[in-house]
Sequence to fold (158 residues):
Amino acid sequence: MNKRLFHPLLFILLVIAAAIPSIAQNPVLSSADRQRWLSEIRGYKHDYLTRELDLTREQQQDFFPLYDAMEDEVERINTDTRELEQRAAENKDATDLELENAARTIFEQKRAEGQIEMTYFEKFKEILTPQQLLRLKSVERRFTQQLVKQHRRLRQAK
Fold:
């Protein structure tokens, strides 16, 4: 692994991964605690994207408000979809048509996410270079993979 990235990235991921088990053990977090935790992860992700995409300060100022708005929209869709799925599964009186419609909405979630991302892609084109734009999705995946990997290591160490 690139030495310049190893130390800060490892630290960030360890902090995040250390927080995950405590949150899993206490699933009923206050709204403020949940928001604080999500804000910390968002900050770590900003740092990671900044480093990996080599964003300038000007790019950071323009990019992250848009990026965060996109992530918020996608999260709203995910939350709404999970709630719909739970309501449909718990509704013992639901008709087959109601269940099919709920299932259709759940399956269409990815399309809705894709539409949001394409809307923001057009905005990102005005801020990021073509190279940065091309690398964005792979950098996001690597961040998530590193986060999961650190979480697994901590769980195995227990």
